[in-house]
Amino acid sequence: MLNSFSSPISSLLDQRAAGHSLPAGLYTREDVFKADLDVFFHHHWIYVGLECEVPEPGDVMAIDIGATSIILLRDDDQQIRVVRNVCRHRGARLLEAGPSIVSKLVCPYHQWTYELSGELAHAPHMGQDFDKSCRSLKPVQFRSIGGMIYVCLSDEAPADIDRLAEVMEPRLQPYDLRNTRIAHQVDVIEEGNWKLAMENNRECYHCSANHPELCVSFIDLDFGFDPDSLTAEDRAIAEEHFAMYAERTRQWEEEGFPSQTVEQTRDCATNFRTQRLIIAGAGESQTEDATAASSKLLGSMTRKDLGDVHLWGHNAWNHFMGDHAVTVMVIPLSADRTLVRTKWLVHKDAVEGVDYDLHKLTHVWIETTNQDSDLVRISHKGVSDPAYEPGPYSPFSEKALDDFATWYVDRMRAHGY
């Protein structure tokens, strides 16, 4: 095997064996980290936030992605816009990362002032012949899919996001995410590579041993198993479960709630998977007892028995339930540090302490994220060890990881690596 510390990135990609995890250097090397940012966070569509985070004109949200910073905002005409967070004078940042409320975007350095449309309104001491019309803030390509904001920082955005929109718009419509609000947000810095964070979320092989809170509402059979390892009794239980799943999915579909598994995870640019999952136990929500956390349901929902619409992307995972939603965004900070930002959404009129209890709403995913953070930490330590060599994925529980690693290598090669 080539030395991963000296070989070009292309050699590391060549070393990846089907059905196995990635070579160490693809997780640990600084040049790979920089390439990942360029390929996957600048030339692919990434999830960055929600329309409901900027509900009124003048509401803005600055988001940092590597050296890049963007501003998500709502303008005076109630339209969503996304612009570069770079003054067109000498490049100063207009806003620090996070939410703000402004009437105009004013550069703190020399007070160049921009309308919420991005147009330059005022540039002091630039002379009468200065043409403001060519100095507007640079726009960013974005798509709002059911109220979720996806951006592409490249001028040439992958066209296959249309498939994501086609699939998810009808699935998200009953939840009316545009009329939700953020009840809580938690940022966790995981001590590991962003791909390890995504791989960890792509499988539940580890769930029963590590996520007691989540397993109250998750059904372990849904995440793969070796049928030869089951007793005849357990095999009969599994067959009964999947027959029930097929029937429940058929009923949901007939009632107008799209539920079938849709995957676009190989031979594509925009990577996603969605499915309506049955919730275990009480069957209502991802809480400590699997009952709804909020009595005020989302959007037009009138039922609590419609499961969990889950949606993966290459930098996000999301869960949409009748009473609330959980969205998670992943942004690499360095080769060994990753921002995992979790948001809990409730109906915009839901009142804490009246309609929902914040602890019940957030406890399962706070615990799960902390547990996952530790797993990512020990995984990164392991792939950094000289003894590490890529190991085989379970064909039953880790197929999604093989898909992700295959997609990753293919997309790196498509961009010249």
Automatic annotation (TrEMBL):
Name of a matching Pfam family: Rieske
The UniProt record lists the keyword rRNA-binding: no
Domain of life from the UniProt record: Bacteria
Listed GO MF terms: 2 iron, 2 sulfur cluster binding; dioxygenase activity; iron ion binding
Keyword Cell cycle: no
Alphabetized Gene3D superfamilies for the sequence: Naphthalene 1,2-dioxygenase Alpha Subunit, Chain A, domain 1 (3.90.380.10), Rieske [2Fe-2S] iron-sulphur domain (2.102.10.10)
SUPFAM superfamilies named in the record: Bet v1-like, ISP domain
Domain Rieske: 45-151
Cofactor annotation: Fe cation
Keywords, ordered alphabetically: 2Fe-2S, Dioxygenase, Iron, Iron-sulfur, Metal-binding, Oxidoreductase
InterPro entries, alphabetized: Rieske_2Fe-2S, Rieske_2Fe-2S_sf, Ring_hydroxy_dOase_asu_C_dom, Rng_hydr_dOase-A
Protein name per its UniProtKB record: Aromatic ring-hydroxylating dioxygenase subunit alpha
Species annotation: Peteryoungia ipomoeae
